[in-house]
């Protein structure tokens, strides 16, 4: 038993060491990647649920890693949060998203009424210089603040609800729109929710997927939509993949939708083709 115990200990430490090395390697690679411009954005349109009219785009980051290939955010965002690399990465995402919107708006007038929606991680949001970093990006890119929307997760907002309320109000004063992202996957205090100056609520795609699996799930989606409306927020359903989901969400009075049913996330060149097509209509 003693031998076995020692082996367990050895396996355990090696595993920990591996993880630490992996974390450090990834951290270095990520910092180098930000410097070397290995990260880029794809954009997914979101629309009015009743008219299918274009409302805006969500910017989603991708990493073109020199040896590991194309990596989705699920493979590095959590790590970037843990190591702090998210601060530089997040600023870069905000800058690229605004720069892309401004370039499109110059070329296609239809873009000028749309929103560019950017994901903000918890650590980025709670960071001391966050408001200044937004101001800097707006100035540098010429992005109109009222065309920018920030998506902040329920978990990030609730972490320090008092200071979040204050910070969100300051962002709102700048004219920027605010979404609570991944709603339903975290824990929200109802009393706080009504104090946040949020424009809309995004229902996590896990709920949309389950909506037609059982009546209960459908009722959960209905309850979330009604709650949002009671609190003066509009609702965006993410992950809408088929016409029956669209119809149900229309019946539930959800305002906006995003998902493969409408469009997949697209890199800049595809977005340009998409926007050129819109202008012809
Ligand atoms: P999210 O903010 O909830 O974004 C929606 C995710 O659902 C995206 O995955 C999108 O590609 C995917 N999606 C959209 N429509 C559909 C659909 O109809 N079906 C399915 N199955 N999926 C759909 P993606 O791009 O892999 O991003 C995953 C998560 O990574 C995002 O979830 C967000 O939390 C995070 N993320 C992405 N970009 C950034 C970023 O720039 N900064 C930060 N902090 N987080 C980011
Ligand atoms: Ca989002
Ligand atoms: Ca989500
Ligand atoms: Ca409101």
From TrEMBL:
Q: Which residues form the EAL domain?
A: 23-279
Superkingdom is Bacteria
What is the name of the protein in this document? Putative PAS/PAC sensor-containing diguanylate cyclase/phosphodiesterase
Species per Swiss-Prot/TrEMBL record: Megalodesulfovibrio gigas (strain ATCC 19364 / DSM 1382 / NCIMB 9332 / VKM B-1759) (Desulfovibrio gigas)
């Amino acid at each position: 038993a003693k031998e076995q115990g020692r082996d367990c200990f050895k396996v355990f430490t090696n595993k920990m060491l591996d993880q630490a090395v992996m974390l450090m390697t990834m951290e270095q690679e990520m910092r180098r990647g930000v410097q070397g411009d290995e990260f880029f954005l794809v954009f997914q349109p979101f629309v009015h649920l009743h008219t299918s009219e274009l409302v805006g785009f969500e910017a989603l980051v991708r990493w073109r890693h020199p040896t590991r290939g194309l990596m989705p955010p699920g493979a590095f965002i959590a790590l970037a949060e843990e190591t702090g690399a998210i601060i530089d990465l997040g600023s870069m995402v905000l800058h690229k998203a605004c720069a892309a919107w401004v370039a499109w708006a110059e070329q296609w007038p239809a873009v000028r009424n749309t929103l560019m929606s950017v994901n903000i991680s918890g650590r980025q949001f709670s960071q001391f210089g966050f408001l200044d970093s937004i101001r800097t990006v707006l100035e540098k890119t010429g992005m109109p603040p009222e065309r920018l929307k920030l998506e902040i997760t329920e978990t990030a907002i609730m972490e320090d609800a008092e200071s979040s309320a204050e910070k969100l109000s300051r962002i709102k004063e700048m004219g920027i729109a605010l979404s609570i992202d991944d709603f339903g996957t975290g824990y929200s205090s109802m009393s706080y929710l009504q104090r946040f100056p949020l424009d809309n609520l995004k229902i996590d795609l896990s709920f949309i997927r389950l909506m037609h699996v059982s009546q209960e799930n459908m009722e959960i989606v209905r309850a979330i939509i009604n709650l949002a409306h009671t609190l003066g927020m509009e609702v965006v359903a993410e992950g809408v993949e088929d016409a029956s989901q669209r119809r149900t969400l229309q019946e539930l009075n959800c305002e906006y939708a995003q998902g493969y049913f409408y469009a997949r996330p697209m890199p800049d060149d595809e977005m340009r083709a998409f926007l050129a097509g819109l202008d012809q209509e």
